[in-house]
Automatic annotation (TrEMBL):
Membrane topology: Single-pass membrane protein
Family from the record: Belongs to the cytochrome P450 family.
Keyword Transmembrane helix in annotation: yes
Cofactor: heme
Gene3D superfamilies attached to this UniProt entry: Cytochrome P450
Lineage: Eukaryota, Viridiplantae, Streptophyta, Embryophyta, Tracheophyta
Protein name: Cytochrome P450 71A1
Organism: Eleusine coracana subsp. coracana
Keywords: Heme, Iron, Membrane, Metal-binding, Monooxygenase, Oxidoreductase, Transmembrane, Transmembrane helix
Length: 388
């Protein structure tokens, strides 16, 4: 499955082909921020909700194509957002029955069982519909029609493999599971990375100003920032790298030893569950100066390709080794493009007039779910920038 993800679904070529769609989705994101800000008397927007919706539409579009799939009776995608939120929460919830099978009745009493069933049914019927539509589209006069390589979404790629590749025997359930894996692994992480970077920038207005100056100097007076501009924005990468060091969305990376192992004088038997604490590694004062501080400048002299897996074990935002994130390139371009455009098009502030942008003005408490995200919803002021 990992091999399918890396070489077929999330390859560099497919990521590049998806570039123009990503740019369209960022345009929708900017438009949405603008509309919400205009609709509020003080220009306030709930950035958390907008970023979740952006991440969700990016992964859904890459997975399902440009057809807008809705749950029954859904208006404006709100029901789907809620079902996905429930799904992300349920994935990391341990049912009582798993701890002590004879206490399984507690899960019925707390409503966990019913909520799980409801969420499963909603997502399963949606994915059934997606796969059936794609199958129908592929059949023309009784024969399979290929979809142009650059136009194919994840479901197209998987159906092609199911039809033509004997090596992988994929059935509909496998395809649904893989797509759900993508949604689960890609949505929450992308939006929480964006939220943390914005929160750090809010708390460090000097860094935000420097980054905005950089972006606006490269763009001049006309936007939007496209994927072609990104390599001209090295400071943007330093800011994201530093934020990932402090706020890796997956703080624990679980592994199991496949053989008896000796490590630093300890004997670790085969089959031991080992948890790598990526959060603590990123903040280790033995490796990092001013480890707890947000200092993007530390990467200016020695830029780091933060998407490269396991080349620098001082921090592991995308994990490492065979189980490392196959969507790192895809996730990075979604984050960079969205962030650069948000900073180009708007000047940002905090809603409460008495609070100024500056150190510790935002609550940075963490909430643990499928990924580590900010606990408080991010309410901000977005003022369109009229330099363009
Ligand atoms: C910037 C955002 C992202 C971050 C920080 C991130 C981080 C991670 C991490 C830390 C892991 C576990 C790696 C390990 O155990 O060594 C992981 C796994 C994974 N990621 Fe990402 N990821 C991001 C975006 C994405 C995207 C956009 C996709 C897909 C479109 C994706 C797909 C996956 C998959 C399929 C796995 C493996 C899940 C499994 O083992 O079942 N990720 N990611």
């Amino acid at each position: 499955m990992c091999c399918i993800c890396v070489h077929r679904i999330l390859s560099t070529r497919r990521n590049l082909a998806f570039g123009h769609v990503q740019e369209q989705l960022v345009a929708v994101l900017i438009d949405r921020i603008c509309t919400r800000a205009k609709a509020h008397p003080k220009g306030e927007v709930n950035l958390s909700l907008i970023l979740i919706s952006y991440a969700n539409s990016t992964i859904s579009r890459a997975s399902f194509g440009d057809h807008y799939y809705k749950l029954d009776g859904d208006i404006g995608g709100e029901k789907l957002r809620q079902v996905l939120a429930d799904f992300f929460e349920l994935v990391v919830t341990t049912p009582m029955a798993d701890i002590a099978p004879w206490l399984g009745w507690v899960d019925t009493l707390t409503g966990l069982e019913q909520r799980t069933r409801r969420t499963f049914e909603a997502l399963d019927s949606l994915l059934e519909r997606v796969v059936a539509d794609h199958r129908n589209k592929r059949f023309s006069s009784g024969r399979v029609v290929g979809v142009d390589e650059d136009q194919r979404d994840f479901v197209d790629v998987l159906l092609d493999m199911a039809d033509k590749d004997a090596e992988f025997q994929l059935d509909t359930d496998n395809i649904k599971a893989l797509i759900l894996d993508m949604l689960a692994a890609g949505t929450d992480t992308t939006s929480s990375v964006l939220e943390w970077v914005m929160a750090e920038l809010m708390n460090h207005p000097d860094v935000m100003q420097k980054l905005q100056d950089d972006i606006r100097a490269v763009l001049g007076v006309t936007g939007p920032v496209t994927r072609d501009h990104l390599h001209k924005l090295p400071y943007l990468k330093c800011v994201i790298t530093e934020s990932l060091r402090l706020h890796s969305p997956s703080s624990f990376l679980p592994r199991e030893t496949t053989e008896d192992t000796e490590l630093l004088g300890y004997h670790i038997p085969k089959g031991t569950r080992v948890t790598i604490d990526s959060w603590a590694i990123g903040r280790d004062p033995a490796t990092w100066e001013r480890a707890e501080e947000f200092v993007p400048e530390r990467f200016v002299e020695a830029p780091d390709d933060y998407t490269k897996l396991g080349h620098d074990f001082r921090f592991l935002p995308f994990g490492a080794g065979r189980r490392g994130c196959p969507g790192a390139g895809f996730g990075a371009s979604s984050v960079e493009l969205a962030l650069a455009n948000m900073l180009f098009h708007f000047d940002w502030g905090l809603p409460d007039g008495s609070r100024k942008l500056g150190a510790s003005s935002l609550d940075m408490s963490e909430a643990h779910g499928l990924s580590v995200r900010r606990q408080a919803a991010q309410l901000v002021l977005a003022k369109p920038w009229f330099g363009h």
